Amino acid sequence: MRFDLITIFPEFFGGPLDHGIIRRAREAGLVDVQVQDLREFTKDRHRSVDDRPFGGGEGMVLKPEPLFEAVESVLGRSAGDAAKQHRPDPGTAIVLMSAAGKLFDQEMARRYSRLERIILICGRYEGVDERVAEHLATEEVSIGDFVLSGGELPAMLVVDAVTRLLPGALGNEASSQNESFSEFEAGTPKGPFVRAPSQTDTGKAGNTTNSAARGQVRALLDFPHYTRPADYRGWRVPETLLSGNHREVIKWRQQKAQEKTRRNRPDLLGE
Ligand code: SAH
Questions:
Q1: Ligand 1: distance of its center to the CA of 122 in Å?
Q2: pTM
């Protein structure tokens, strides 16, 4: 899997790419992450990447030319017109990070993890010339309902969520099988933490979401984890976890996952 991050702040990614699972995945050759300096794709003397907005208003807007040039340079070909139905390469996504985009979630991360190549465009200032969203990006993606000052953190978050889903990326450290937002083939041996499809999956008009349509069910949020010491400042680890009774432990985890999902994310239960 190859990622290209297009940014006006290439140094931004130094830290996040050099630690933990992502670092290991890079070293193992599972992912190749290239950071592209947008200014390298300007042609004027001042290497300008932004300009004032037509129609007036505050702030600056990232110009289309350097972004198109950058994407076409890393693709090694013309980007065509993303607004036209014909997609030259279904294995490649060109993603514009945008507070006004579609919400990123674990299902999108899973879809991305099956691609060969993802180009992530990081906006800044007031945002990006709309022709990038319309004709260059194959998708416009938001990481949540809040506004950040740039697309670098959002892009990094996508790289992280996708990389840890690649086979071999997690090693023995953890598994992406039984965590929050996991999905299972319906009918396969289910972990204990699976909920049945609900109204969330079957919309009011009976429209099923993608996952329900594929016959898949989703996990509850993760259950609470504890480690030593068994007593910390008088707060004891729940007795069931210390009991050694595996069946009881599973029941307890199921119940706590259910409680936590109801408390923090009732929407996942269709409530
Ligand atoms: N004027 C825009 C915000 C621009 S913020 C608006 O109101 O929607 C500058 C850049 O930060 C954006 O171009 C985008 O790349 C990035 N950004 C900000 N919030 C984001 C979010 N929630 N998800 C993804 N990218 C975001």
A1: 9
A2: 0.90
